[in-house]
Amino acid sequence: MISGMKRTVLAGLASAVMALGALTAAVPGNAAATSPLASSSFVSGQILVKFRDNAAASGVLGQHGLREGPAVGSTGAHLITVPAGKELHLVEALSHNPAVEYAEPDELATATSDDEYFPRQYALHNVGQAFTNTAGTKTVAAGTDNADVDAVEAWTVTTGGDTRVAIIDSGVAINHPDISSRVVERANFSDTAIVVDEDYDRYGHGTHVAGIVAAARDNTIGVAGVCPDCAILDAKVLNDSGSGSSSGIANGINWAVSKGAQVINMSLGRRVSSRTLEAAVNNAWNAGVVIVAAAGNGGTQAQVYPGAYPNVIAVAATDNNDMKASFSTYGKWVDVAAPGVGVYSTFPTYPFTLGGQNGRSMGYDIETGTSMASPIVAATAALVWNTAAGTSNIEVRKKIEATANPIKGTGTYWKYGRVDACKAVGCTK
Predict the structure, then answer these.
(1) Quick one: CATH architecture of 19-107?
(2) Using CA atoms, how far apart are residues 102 and 112, in angstroms rounded to an integer?
(3) How far apart are CA 205 and CA 367, in angstroms?
(4) How far is Cα 340 from Cα 377, in angstroms, rounded to an integer?
(5) Taking the C-alpha atoms of 138, 141, 147 and 153 in order, what is their torsion angle to the nearest 10 degrees?
(6) Looking at residue 144, what DSSP letter applies?
(7) pTM (global) more than 0.70
(8) 3-class secondary structure, 313
(9) CB of 233 within 8 A of CB of 284?
(10) In the chain, what are the domain boundaries?
(11) Do 374 and 334 meet the contact criterion of CB atoms below 8 Å apart?
């Protein structure tokens, strides 16, 4: 039984400081604004001011009841604290003073992407957007701003650096333009005989999971993965019906370890424990691998394996309002949560089983389940591996859990909260 069916980072740091006009769409209610200032998003309670002569700063600011503030690097500008709601008024007033070279709001720059469906990827960057599936027949209602894992912010620190993530699943579509190039090794441990390339994933589940982890970014098509520069190890253990054996899964885990996996994702599960499967999990953990698995879609507290094994990070699903998904398995045995409702990702570009069952489009579409939440966490772990904190699987797991946001349900539905990739890699928002 499988446990679920389940803007981008800048192209280089220079893209982070982007044209402010491009950010207006991120500000609700500003569509009719005509002033460039009125249509921008900025930090409340502070502005940037550069004086022609710093000796005049104290007097000029004092006229408005303000004090001098710290320099902003070597720019010559100073960060001035102002009353919230008065930012634009004070910028206007100071701009007319001959002692001031310029005054401006402290704008919020949001990294963006040219991936076609990125605006639908609320799990990576949630601005409260509503969106539809690829066919336009199903709408995901507007969510809550910032109910996401802050992947875009995390990319200012790392995009993965070829960290190896094993996808133990139904395979990855071998010719998909957005994900197949990230696959560096593949092996088949299912009962499906690989006759043609498409046989690597006729079910569709593994391709969707892989895209969540490492779909290419800024390539004008499709979506972006949480760890877009990660490398994928494709271990096919599930057949065209989405089922697989404990032995096949264990063999997939062992193979992944032998190929240098640093993270293993298993978006699959069973109600009955297996000593063989647990041994494979423990061997992988002892070899230094971070192991992540879906908690299941039963809507109960019943443990699901391999997620319930101590050496596995078990992942529940949340929606775009940071609420527990109604279907998600939960309980104190579950470690963290991540978005798992209406998650947009890759699908095979040829007919596949989940497409027929769930009405999903070829190429890209949404899917729902803890199977979608798990790879978000696995990809976050891969990002952490590529930072100074990535010294061991123990430290990577600690970082994932310690930096999770304690949203509603933490302590009851899951131990640590909803995963935050930005905090996990040590970036600031």
Answers:
(1) 2-Layer Sandwich (3.30)
(2) 27
(3) 9
(4) 11
(5) 60
(6) -
(7) yes
(8) strand
(9) no
(10) 19-107, 118-425
(11) no
Range list of β-strands (E), 52-203: 78-81, 100-107, 131-132, 139-140, 164-169, 183-188
Give the number of other Cβ atoms within 10 Å of residue 423's Cβ. Answer: 21
**Does residue 240 have an active-site annotation?**
no
Q: Which of 3, 274, 371, 374 is catalytic?
A: 371
The active-site residue, picked from 205, 246, 365, 420, is: 205
Q: How far is CA 171 from CA 15, 161, 221, 335, in A?
A: 34, 23, 21, 26
Active site residue 176: no
> How much of the chain, in percent, has pLDDT values that exceed 90?
78
Both tokens of residue 382? Answer: 């891969």
Written as six digits, the tokens of 53 are 């002569």
- Is residue 205 among the annotated active site residues? yes
Q: Which of 148, 169, 229, 365 is catalytic?
A: 169
Phi, psi of 373 (to 5 degrees): -70, -40
CATH superfamily, region 118-425: Peptidase S8/S53 domain (3.40.50.200)
Give the residue carrying structure tokens 């402290």: 106
CA–CA distances in Å: residue 97 to residues 35, 52, 63, 77, 106: 20, 10, 11, 15, 19
Q: Quick one: residue 29, left, alpha or beta (phi over 0 = left, psi -120 to 50 = alpha)? A: left
How do residues 27-49 score in pLDDT, each as one tens digit?
Answer: 222 222 222 233 346 778 999 89
Task: Tell me the three state secondary structure of residue 165.
Answer: strand
- Only one residue has tokens 């992944």, namely 256
Which one-letter amino acid corresponds to residue 388? A
pLDDT of residue 10: 24
**Quick count: other Cβ atoms within 10 Å of Cβ 413?**
23
